[in-house]
């Protein structure tokens, strides 16, 4: 049976946050089955002209093997007030085998409390925001991505692809991760400690 | 007025081929307006679980400024036989200000004849296929992307993002391209002559 990759979206999600990892999992179709979900299902759009058909959260297959993908976007600054979304997200995160957040997707997770005491990172432009949001999270200021137990959290947008390849390596082996990067002709920035954008944003 | 970015898709399009460039243009919303189109409009899906709402080709704004984005995918091996699609694609390509193809998207364009005599590239795994398809195209075997007049053609999948940043640089300036890459925390492989995957595939 293929591992469920449950990609969640909401209005004004950041396109590449979710589509980068989806491409990489999608290239390994014999292992993973990607499906898109939103709180209530139906069409979800963003400012990039993307209009996606989704299923409702309640129809998601969540188990010890399933992978939850959580994108970010500027809209997460508002979504941290959306209690119905956060309540359901918390349940999904607690019951998924792995949770991968991209960019400010980690702010949503932080707002649910499931990252309390966990090492995590986020988009470097939103770093003050996430720190203020929940100081119980052990935020890492310089990291392209951070792994702590079942939680993989990445920096902004494109960092999600580098993190996803690391996740594939950790769970399926180095060879499969390399093959996946080659199929996508993606130049994998495979060292999580090299974070160019940390410096860019600090200047 | 914003420049129309007309992203075309078809059943089983490659996710990141189109979503990588869409993210980058989407980050520059004050300059570009991205919309998705398919031959007859409606919902278009692919094997990565993506189901996209699209408008029909006939509703596309095509002019000397508009940008046509053409993704690839294994399905293009079949689509080169789809004459109704190719006929319309030819008209769109001829009347668009710029045409950007990603991966085997260039095979579709080559099949229409509009690339005859034009320098172009494609996914390196599909290189024999595109060469056989149309030997009047001046195919470049080693290039992450190739520019010839209004045509920008890239290698596989992720190369589309590097090419899109080059396009933004050429048309809006270096500063905007760099800003866009930083916003996406994308490590821009900005030299089109460095093509790691050319070697990978030749081994």
Automatic annotation (TrEMBL), chains A, B:
InterPro entries: Class_I_gatase-like, DJ-1/PfpI, INH-QAR. Residues 8-169 form the DJ-1/PfpI domain. CDD domains: GATase1_PfpI_2 (cd03139). This is DJ-1/PfpI domain-containing protein.
